[in-house]
From TrEMBL:
Biased composition (Basic and acidic residues): 532-544, 634-645
Entry protein name: FACT complex subunit SSRP1
Family label: Belongs to the SSRP1 family.
PROSITE patterns the record matches: HMG_BOX_2
Length: 706
């Protein structure tokens, strides 16, 4: 038999809400990790007293009772898993997994039994419903009546808020059944009653969420925030995590208390309590307990008289009462030397702290993201400027967080940190060996600050070196990683002092050219290469050899019909996906065969290109020779005409008239959009010919001009 059993998508009932997570049963005990909060419940095998299997709304459920009276309920099992669980309980826990069905008669009278922290309403021997007394927020009594009020469940659309029990009078003297019922409920209920004196009081503390100045009264079981407008009572059982974070200015400290369930004010929910302290504030604190009680209760973690910085005293007292570790930033250091990064989330600017097991953003709104719930991260270009970039995080539940306006100097430090933590980077792709090595059932707030980070960094460097040495021949394309400091600066921007001067600066005023050299540089740099690109695209030779196909494309062309026949009716996109999966699963030996074919095709292409380039050179040389021959003939004709014009003096008057007419005529004829220098030279040659050749008549001049 296996030593462990694991179940995904199991739901635990906590204070009326069903929290999904992962359940693992082992020889040592039962572990449940909440997917939403990362909180871990660990039940030792020696503490288990009873196991019950029953049918519930979400399939089948498992109820575990411990020897100290705690009850744990897990739903979402399939009926077929009963035998496996029953055998496991017998073999490792020495317990019989009993099957008990709920009563569905619909009667509303029966017997109430109190067992541990559970109130069970039974008809005969079968339970109708059970109420965990920790869900009860208030209990009031009336004549023959007891009313139970419950904590509101924010995750449910409809919450059960109240249940009333009618308690019939009995003939027993001296015992009131209503009061006895109420006392049984209140002894186990989660009812906050500010009885007695506070252990200590911190006055006028600055609170960022909820905003304002509050007095914090520390009681044995809960925390009381007293402000000018609102009061909040926070049980220590709702405190999930504690964070102590240094501000970027190194003069202030954040103390963050994570709450589940959150405190409420109207429709507003506060999942985090954030206090801001100055490092210069000191305090002397005296606990409202004698020294023996302090030693017995806190076992040396606190003393009756303490003094020091205010933030240290608050965090020390909270750590001792809540009995949870305080999370502080690890060895991450940004570009400025701070342990955080300045960025914006939604509409507000704040600070992002990379921790050993997650990220936390303060302060508005505060966000805590654990590494084990991150699907991938992404480095994206800034939307407004290239001097900053965006850091995107997407969780496995599909929630996306975008932290924008991060200075690009922080890119290298943040990238190294993400890489060392083995997080999947979207625009680089998931590389081999980059899978996360977190324990699925480890509590996410147990941060370690020893050699863990250094080991991760060393492994990250080794993986990067291996990845750079190896080349990926699978034919799959991945997005380029965004490096803000390595941008392409080939094109000169407007008003750039390094922009080259315009070649046509001699045409205009020199003063004007000195004032605006950059605009002309932009025209030269932007427009002319664009024209050349268009001309090269239009003038592409259809007789040029075609580029060779890759190994994957050769294999796909050979196997396309086979894939179609194996999957009749498959669409083009599905065919491409299927082909990619087949190619990826293909062995290395088979791929080498297609690689050889692709190499042969590449050699044939290079050979054909050499032959094509030799042929094109010979054709271009022929056209150049013909152009030179034509120019030579034109010069000879021009020389003869000039010689003839020098000997015939009688036609000088007609020459001058022909010159004027030709010039006036050619000013209209030679208006052209061609800007090349060859066009201007041709125009000069034609003007000289017009001057040298005297037309004997108007008809001949007209025919000559045509």
């Amino acid at each position: 038999m296996a030593d462990t059993l694991e179940f995904n998508e199991i739901y635990q009932e906590v204070k009326g809400s069903m929290n999904d997570g992962r359940l693992r049963l082992s020889r040592q005990g039962v572990i449940f990790k909440n997917s939403k909060t990362g909180k871990v419940d660990n039940i030792q095998a020696s503490e288990l007293a009873e196991g019950v299997w029953r049918r519930v709304a979400l399939g089948h459920g498992l109820k575990l009772l411990t020897k100290n009276g705690h009850v744990y309920k897990y739903d979402g099992f399939r009926e077929s898993e009963f035998d496996k669980l029953s055998d496991f309980f017998k073999a490792h826990y020495c317990l019989e997994l009993a099957e008990k069905d709920l009563c569905v008669k619909g009667w509303n009278w029966g017997t109430v039994r109190f067992g541990g922290q559970l109130l069970s309403f039974d008809i005969g021997e079968q339970p109708v419903f059970e109420i965990p007394l920790s869900n009860v927020s208030q209990c009031t009594t009336g004549k023959n009546e007891v009313t139970l009020e419950f904590h509101q469940n924010d995750d449910a659309e409809v919450s059960l808020m109240e249940v009333r029990f009618y308690v019939p009078p009995t003939q027993e003297d001296g015992v009131d059944p209503v009061e006895a019922f109420a006392q049984n409920v209140l002894s186990k209920a989660d009812v906050i009653q500010a009885t007695g004196d506070a252990i200590c009081i911190f006055r006028e503390l600055q609170c960022l969420t909820p905003r304002g100045r509050y007095d914090i009264r520390i009681y044995p079981t809960f925390l009381h925030l007293h402000g000018k407008t609102f009061d909040y009572k926070i049980p220590y059982t709702t405190v999930l995590r504690l964070f102590l974070l240094p501000h970027k200015d190194q003069r202030q400290m954040f103390f963050v208390i994570s709450l589940d369930p959150p405190i409420k004010q109207g429709q507003t929910r506060y999942h985090f309590l954030i206090l801001l302290f100055s490092k210069d504030e000191d305090i002397s604190l005296t606990l409202n307990m004698n020294e023996e009680e302090v030693e017995k209760r806190f076992e040396g973690r606190l003393t009756k008289n303490m003094s020091g910085s205010l933030y240290e005293m608050v965090s020390r007292v909270m750590k001792a009462l809540v009995n949870r570790k305080i999370t502080v930033p690890g060895n991450f250091q940004g570009h400025s030397g701070a342990q955080c990064i300045t960025c914006s989330y939604k509409a507000s600017s704040g600070l992002l702290y990379p921790l050993e097991r997650g990220f936390i953003y303060v302060h508005k709104p505060p966000v805590h993201i654990r590494f084990d719930e991150i699907s991938f991260v992404n480095f994206a270009r800034g939307t407004t400027t290239t001097r900053s970039f965006d850091f995107e995080i997407e969780t496995k539940q599909g929630t996306q967080y975008t932290f924008s306006s991060i200075e690009r100097e922080e890119y290298g430090k943040l990238f190294d940190f993400v890489n060392a933590k083995k997080l999947n980077i979207k625009n680089r792709g998931l590389k081999e060996g980059m899978k996360q090595s977190y324990d699925e059932y480890a509590d996410s707030d147990e941060d370690q600050h020893d050699a863990y980070l250094e080991r991760m960094k060393e492994e990250g460097k080794i993986r990067e070196e291996n990845a750079n040495d190896s080349s990926d021949g699978s034919g799959e394309e991945t997005d380029e990683s965004f490096n803000p400091g390595e941008e392409d600066d080939d094109v000169a921007e407007e008003f750039d002092s390094n922009a080259s001067a315009s070649s046509s600066s001699g045409d205009g005023d020199s003063d004007r050219d000195e004032k605006k050299p950059a605009k002309k540089a932009k025209i030269v740099k932007d427009r002319k290469p664009r024209k050349k690109q268009l001309e090269s695209k239009k003038g592409k030779d259809p007789n040029a050899p075609k580029r060779p196909m890759s190994a994957y494309m050769l294999w796909l062309n050979a196997n396309r019909e086979k894939i179609k026949s194996d999957h009749p009716g498959i669409s083009i996109t599905d065919l491409s996906k299927k082909a990619g999966e087949l190619w990826k699963a293909m062995s290395k030996e088979k791929k080498e065969e297609w690689d050889r074919k692709a190499e042969d095709a590449r050699r044939d292409y290079e050979k054909a290109m050499k032959e094509y380039s030799v042929g094109s050179k010979s054709e271009s040389s022929k056209t150049e020779r013909s152009k030179k021959k034509k120019k030579k003939q034109e010069k000879q004709v021009k020389g003869k005409v000039e010689k003839k014009g020098a000997t015939s003096k009688s036609l000088s008057s007609t020459k001058s008239s022909a010159k004027s007419t030709n010039e006036s005529f050619k000013s209209k004829e030679f208006v052209s959009s061609d800007e090349s220098s060859s066009g201007e030279s041709k125009k000069e040659d034609s003007e000289e010919e017009g001057v040298a050749s005297p037309p004997p008549s108007s008809e001949e001049s007209a025919s000559g001009s045509d």
